[in-house]
Write a sequence for this structure.
C-alpha cells in the first residue's frame, strides 16, 4: 500500500494485541474447533464454515456454507466479525445471536462453547494470524480493492479526516477510530483529476470495489449500480 497523505494514525490498541505467544497457544486451543472448522491454506467448509479471514469478514458469508437462519439474519443486518464480537460469540453462540438480533428464538448452528476468556483471546489471535487484510476498526470503515488492478482510493470521515492510498488488488484502506457515523470511500481515475466513484459506508463495515468503470458506474460489493 502506498500512502500519499500521511494522516495515518496507529489504530487504537485493543485488548487483542496478538503476541507470538498467544498465537501459539491459540493453535492448541484451536484443536477444539478443528472438529468442525478449518483455517489457512487449502481450508474448506466442513461441519462449520472455513475460518480463514474470518476477522473482518461479514458474518454468515463463507461461500457455499449452509448457515442457520439466525446467522443469515445477522448477515442481513450487517454484522461484521471483529475480534471483540468473535470473543462474545464463541462463548455462547446462541446467546450472542439472541442478543444481537433481539430475538429470543434465534438459534446458532454452532453447538460448541468456549468459556475460558484466555483461551478465547488466544484462539482469536491464532485466527487473526491467518487474515490477509486488516480488520475493520471498531469505529471506522474500510474500502477493499476487490478488482484485479491497482487503483487510487480515498476514505473520508464526516469530520473531514481523509486518507488517500494506492491499493493493489486485495489491499484495503481503513479509517482510524473516530466517532463518525459513517464515511465516504472513493476510487479515483488519477491523483490529479479526482474523477471517480464514491460511496457512503456505515461505520464498522468494509465496502468492496468489484470493478472500476467510468465515473459513477463502478461496481461495489454491497449494491451493484
Ligand atoms: C461442533 C462443531 C463446531 C465447533 C467445535 C466449533 N464450531 Fe464454530 N461454527 C460451527 C457452525 C455449524 C457454524 C455456523 C453457525 C450458524 O450457521 O449459525 C460456526 C460458526 C462459527 C463462526 C462464524 C463464522 C461465519 O462465517 O460467520 C466463528 C467465528 C466460529 N464458528 C468460531 C469457532 C471457534 C473459534 C471454535 C473453537 C473455539 C469453534 N467455532 C468451534 C460449528 C462448530
Amino acid at each position: 500500500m502506498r500512502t500519499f497523505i500521511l494522516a495515518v494514525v496507529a489504530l487504537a490498541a485493543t485488548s487483542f494485541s496478538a503476541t507470538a505467544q498467544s498465537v501459539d497457544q491459540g493453535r492448541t486451543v484451536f484443536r477444539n474447533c478443528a472438529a468442525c472448522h478449518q483455517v489457512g491454506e487449502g481450508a474448506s467448509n466442513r461441519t462449520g464454515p472455513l475460518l480463514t479471514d474470518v476477522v473482518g469478514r461479514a458474518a454468515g458469508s463463507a461461500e457455499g456454507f449452509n448457515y442457520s437462519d439466525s446467522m443469515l439474519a445477522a448477515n442481513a443486518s450487517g454484522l461484521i466479525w471483529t475480534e471483540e464480537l468473535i470473543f462474545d460469540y464463541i462463548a455462547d453462540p446462541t446467546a450472542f445471536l439472541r442478543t444481537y438480533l433481539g430475538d429470543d428464538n434465534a438459534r446458532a448452528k454452532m453447538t460448541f462453547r468456549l468459556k475460558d476468556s484466555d483461551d478465547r483471546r488466544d484462539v482469536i489471535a491464532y485466527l487473526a494470524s491467518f487474515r490477509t487484510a486488516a480488520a475493520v476498526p471498531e469505529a471506522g470503515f474500510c474500502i477493499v480493492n476487490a478488482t484485479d488492478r491497482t487503483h487510487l482510493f480515498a476514505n473520508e470521515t464526516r469530520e473531514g479526516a481523509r486518507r488517500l492510498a494506492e491499493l493493489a488488488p486485495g489491499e484495503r484502506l481503513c479509517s482510524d477510530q473516530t466517532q463518525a457515523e459513517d464515511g465516504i470511500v472513493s476510487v479515483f481515475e488519477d491523483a490529479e483529476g479526482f474523477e471517480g466513484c464514491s460511496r457512503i459506508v456505515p461505520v464498522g463495515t468494509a465496502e468492496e470495489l468489484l470493478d472500476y468503470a467510468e465515473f459513477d458506474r463502478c461496481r461495489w460489493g454491497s449494491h451493484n449500480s
